[in-house]
Amino acid sequence: MTSDILIIGGGPVGATLALALKNYGLRVTVLEARHPGAGARDARTLALSEGSRLILSRLGVWSQLAPRATSINTIHISQRGRLGQTVLRAAEEGQEALGYVLPYADLSAALDDALVAAEDTRIEFGVRATALETSADKVTVTVEQHGATKQFSTRLAVIADGGRSMDALPGMKRETREYGHTALVGHVECALPHGNIAYERFTPQGPVALLPEGATGFALVWTAKPEEAERLMQLPEPQFLAELHGYFGDRVGEFHAITGRATFPLRLVTLRPVTAPRVVAIGNAAQTLHPVAGQGFNLGLRDAWQLALIARETAAELIGGADMLRCYQGKRRMDTGGGIFFTDFLVRVFSNDLPGWGMVRGAGLALLDMCAPARHFVSRKMSFGAKG
Ligand SMILES: Cc1cc2nc3c(=O)[nH]c(=O)nc-3n(C[C@H](O)[C@H](O)[C@H](O)COP(=O)(O)OP(=O)(O)OC[C@H]3O[C@@H](n4cnc5c(N)ncnc54)[C@H](O)[C@@H]3O)c2cc1C
Which residue, by CA, sits nearest to atom 29 of ligand 1? Predict the structure, then answer.
């Protein structure tokens, strides 16, 4: 047995799990296909919930991230060309912030550093897992490294590959729903200060989000049909900014510059169940969501945290056993089910131009804005998950 727990994928979710298992006497190995620091090329910007900040603080990485994070104090939700809006405020929730905006690259670099520094965790970069084979008491993981093939054996294999590479195992079913959406991301500078306000604006073509990023400017997530996103990618900067202004409206004034344009195809992918004998999938490997509500990483982080809590309380020889995996599934069912439902609901209900729906959505947003307990409920779930 080369380890008690072997984590396939040292992305934000896999790395969080490994750090949460540090100093508990378990032999933990992380296999990561990319090289250290290569996460810096990822153009995504993430909105982290207050719950995620608390987890990263407990792991000792938040202090390194805090100077790069921009807090969200207000979230403004509206729909294009229609009445009705909702405003969520941190002050009303008794929180310092509703969330924090952070480049994926910074998060990935801080977690890489922490993993390399963790004495009792083995991290191997440049190692790609290619196959899993389970038996009664162990999992054998085949990997490729520098063109050679190696094998590791472990009591529990955790798939945290972002759903990017490993096939679903027998008994696990992967379902995909195509939204016909691509996200165009980038950093925009604009005329007015961001005031730590995040904007989510729904349109029939898909949502547009502006997340406050840095001292000035916003991280843009513009969802559109794939061919439209491709056209926007190719537009010269002045035309792109003019179209964004026409699309988003005047709330933040004129847009002055855009940098780092990149696109990501969007779909809902769910794996059910998320466990197989001696195997568990977490993070995007278990559920890949539309970024409309900024829930994907936050949900994955709670997967990692919950799995670590259970593993810490399980005797080493029982790690990966049926009881442990049943316990994990039971504890995560409500939160992941809620996150998937909420995100899918927003995409389906808010991204269409079916007759009459605009008014219904507007009334819904206005009602939410008038009802403090309902706003509190939404803020709480977005910050800390379905279990609050
Ligand atoms: C445009 C966009 C915006 C988003 N915004 C938000 C947001 O605001 N808030 C939020 O919470 N979420 C957001 N998300 C979702 C978030 O990015 C993901 O949920 C999160 O990155 C998932 O982390 P992960 O570690 O599970 O997977 P990944 O980030 O995909 O990491 C997987 C890791 O596994 C490694 N790997 C893959 N295959 C193998 C293999 N075979 N062997 C070894 N290693 C392997 C990869 O190199 C990678 O490092 C957004 C997503 C997109 C596309």
Answer: 11
Distance of alpha carbon 137 from alpha carbon 297, whole angstroms:
31
- Those residues whose C-beta lies under 8 Å from the C-beta of residue 312, and which sit 6 or more positions away, are 21, 24, 26
Where does the pLDDT of residue 42 fall: very low under 50, low under 70, confident under 90, or very high at 90 and above?
Answer: confident
Contacts of 111 (CB under 8 A, 6+ apart): 10, 12, 15, 16, 19, 61
pLDDT in tens, 128-167: 999 999 999 999 999 999 899 999 999 999 999 999 888 8
Give the residue extent of every domain in the chain. Answer: 3-175+267-384
Q: What does the angle CA 283 – CA 56 – CA 223 come to, to the nearest 5 degrees? A: 50
pLDDT level of residue 388 (50, 70, 90 thresholds)? low
The alpha-carbon radius of gyration of the chain (Å, integer) is 21
Q: Is the CB of 206 under 6 A from ligand 1?
A: no
Sorted by sequence, the CB contacts under 8 Å of residue 61 that are 6+ apart come out as: 19, 110, 111, 114
At the second CATH level, the architecture of 3-175+267-384 is 3-Layer(bba) Sandwich (3.50)
Span between the terminal Cα atoms of the chain, in Å? 38
pTM score: 0.94
Nearest residue (CA) to ligand 1, atom 45: 9
